[in-house]
Design goal:
The complex is a heterodimer of chains A (about 325) and B (about 250). With about 325 residues, chain A is mainly α. Chain A has a single domain, classed as ABC transporter involved in vitamin B12 uptake, BtuC (Orthogonal Bundle). Chain A contains 13 helices and 2 strands, in the order αααααβααααβαααα. A two-stranded antiparallel sheet of chain A has the order 1-2. In chain A, helix 3 runs antiparallel to helix 4. Chain A starts with a helix and ends in a 5-residue tail after the last helix. The longest helix of chain B is centred in the middle third of the chain and has 14 residues. Chain B is globular, with a radius of gyration of 18 Å. Chain B folds into 2 domains: about 160 residues, P-loop containing nucleotide triphosphate hydrolases (Rossmann fold, 3-Layer(aba) Sandwich); about 80 residues, no CATH class. Classes of the chains: A mainly alpha (about 325), B alpha/beta (about 250). At the A-B interface, helix 6, helix 7, helix 8 and helix 9 of A face helix 2 and helix 3 of B. The structure holds adenosine-5'-triphosphate (ATP) and magnesium ion. The site of magnesium ion (MG) has 3 residues of chain B, from helix 1. Adenosine-5'-triphosphate (ATP) binds next to strand 2 and helix 1 of chain B.
């Protein structure tokens, strides 16, 4: 088996085993850290589908985290305080459906426009759409504007309770594994070959008869929907939902995670999230300017270890 | 017999440069039609308009009796037009086999298929290997494309064009940059393709053109100055003067 496959299995095993151990040894703080890590990793895995495998450098991916989080926050808000009966609900299935559905729709509408552009223009227009929805939520007084929404009830699901930190972690972990397997299945499929072919040489793929625009748009929608799901989890985790979840800096952080860990790899985005969370934790306790050393490190990896951390694990001879 | 491809009054200019100047041309099914002309004559520009990569300024392109002038490139490919590129255009970060398999896959309808691993599909793999075998590259199938030589890349371009199953192959200087031996092999290979596919061949190598072509069209400054069989072209004074005379 390849070294990267081993690394993936070992790392995912560690993520399965460590948090319960932390919990039972009275280190609940680390379970919180791991939950945040795993949820952001789902978002990064979803971004990797379009950024890594599709070559679409989206700088607005955090929008879906926000959409997913508000898809939990808004129905819970109405159920708690009354009003808007049609969408008032504590039901987890409803929250997830709205999170995934609205994210997919937003991805379809904005992707249809963004994917008409290339390169720097694509980066800028995805960022513009991300900021658009950010300012939209900042302007809605009803949902707390830039102060955000605090919910005191989490999504209700059958069999499990998201109020239990370990159960919430387990759900997030399983979701991450499913997301990784989904992306792996997609990129290895015939659809995935077209997506990766178009990343490498779009003109060639068009000449073969592929309407690459439609393939990219499909990947864009799948990716957005997956990230919306991550947003619903994050809303449940923090129980504090604010526009800050979807600002452009959060989008940038997701890109960092993917590139730092190794784009177009299975474990890369997860590894990137882990490093990001740990660095944020360690560096932010030392200095409030922690973005600077973090940025420098990212530049170091990008310049000296092409392929990110997974590139380092892969080693030279291994292919 | 009606023409497979019919070009009527096609015009294209870039700023002040007229690259295609009222071109009228018919390509018959099964023929190997060569286009020759000096550098900058507009040969690649013509191919690009036929494949759909460039929109013409005016004129009409008919393929299999259908007006395709305004159809996008991917739709033309689906109708049965493929091209090779003067400057090699492959997916460099994929394997040789994957490149050809993508061409085979393109023929089998849409590829919105998300579950089965593409590389495990025997039919795709076998046919792609078959095509690579025809150009002598089967031993290189699993290599990353970027690792192959220029000559091998040219062969890949042909294998891919074949794998699409297109009725009309637009080949833009398939011999470009090949050594003498590789060129001879390519000429032999194209000879073997004659009759199987309709080919519009752009080529600078006169020996190749006169050895291969059923008909030849001479393009100078975007304008057709002659069309005919090799003997007619050899004997044409205008052509001699404008083009062959240089030799
Ligand atoms: N995209 C473009 N923009 C501007 N001018 C162009 C463009 N493409 C081609 N031209 C010009 O159009 C003319 C025809 O170019 P084209 O590449 O079709 O010639 P060609 O016959 O293929 O030449 P060669 O034998 O060198 O390949 C040239 O004068 C070229 O400079
Ligand atoms: Mg040319």
């Amino acid at each position: 088996m390849k070294r990267t496959t081993w690394a993936t299995i070992l790392f995912m095993l560690a993520l399965a085993i460590l948090p319960p151990v932390f919990m039972w040894t009275g280190n609940a703080f680390y379970v919180d850290l791991a939950t945040r890590l795993v949820i952001l990793a789902i978002a990064a895995v979803s971004l990797n589908l379009i950024l890594g495998f599709g070559g679409m450098v989206s700088f607005g991916h955090a929008a879906y985290i926000g959409i997913g989080a508000y898809a939990v926050g808004i129905p819970v808000y109405y159920e708690t305080y009354g009003g808007a009966d049609a969408i008032a609900s504590y039901g987890g299935a409803f929250h997830i459906l709205v999170a995934v559905g609205v994210s997919a729709l937003f991805a379809l509408l904005t992707g249809a426009i963004c994917l008409r552009t290339k390169g720097v223009y694509f980066i800028m227009i995805t960022m513009a759409f991300g900021q658009m929805i950010y300012y939209l939520f900042i302007s809605i007084e009803e949902y707390g504007a830039d102060d955000g929404l605090v919910i005191d009830t989490r999504s209700e699901l059958p069999l499990v309770s998201l109020d239990d930190p370990l159960q919430l972690y387990a759900i997030a972990y399983v979701a991450l594994v499913i997301a990784m397997l989904m992306v792996r299945t997609i990129v290895n499929s015939r659809f995935g070959m077209v997506l990766q072919g178009a990343r490498g040489n779009n003109e060639r793929l068009v000449t073969l008869g592929y309407n690459t625009y439609l393939y990219r748009l499909t990947a864009y929608v799948i990716s957005g929907a997956m990230c919306g799901f991550a947003g619903a989890l994050l809303g449940n985790f923090t129980t504090f939902i604010s526009p800050d979840m979807m600002g452009w800096s959060r989008s940038g952080e997701l890109m960092f995670m993917v590139i730092l860990g190794g784009s177009a790899t299975m474990l890369g985005p997860v590894l990137g999230s882990a490093v990001f969370i740990l660095m944020e934790e360690i560096l932010s306790s030392i200095t409030i300017y922690w973005h600077l050393p973090f940025g420098l490190m990212l530049m170091g990896v990008v310049l000296f270890a092409r392929g990110g951390l997974m590139g380092l694990i892969k080693g030279k001879g291994d292919k | 017999m009606s023409a497979l491809l019919k070009i009527s009054n096609l015009c294209k200019s870039f700023g002040g440069v007229t690259a295609t100047d009222n071109v009228n041309l018919e390509v018959e099914p099964g023929e190997l039609h060569a286009i020759i002309g000096p550098n900058g004559a507009g040969k690649t520009t013509l191919i690009s308009q036929l494949s759909g990569a460039l929109p013409p300024d005016s004129g009409k392109i008919t393929f299999k009796g259908m007006d395709i002038t305004n159809r996008p490139a991917h739709a033309r490919a689906r109708l049965g037009i493929t091209r090779s590129f003067q400057i090699t255009s492959l997916v460099m970060d994929m394997s040789v086999l994957d490149n050809v398999a993508l061409a085979v896959q393109a023929r089998q309808g849409h590829s919105f298929r998300f579950l089965k691993p593409a590389r495990s599909i025997r039919a795709l793999r076998d046919e792609a290997l078959d095509m690579l075998g025809r150009v002598g590259l089967e031993a290189r199938a699993e290599q990353p494309t970027v690792a192959l030589s220029h000559g091998e890349h040219r062969q890949m371009e042909i294998a891919i064009a074949l794998a699409t199953g297109a009725d009309l192959m637009l080949l833009d200087e398939p011999m470009a940059g090949l050594g003498p031996q590789e060129s001879v092999a390519m000429i032999e290979f194209l000879k073997g393709l004659k009759g199987e596919r309709t080919i519009l061949l752009i080529e600078h190598d006169m020996d190749a053109v006169f050895a291969l072509a059923d008909r030849i069209t001479v393009l100078v400054y975007g304008r057709i100055i002659a069309t005919g069989n090799p003997d007619e072209i050899r004997g044409n004074d205008d052509v001699r003067h404008a083009y062959l005379g240089e030799e």
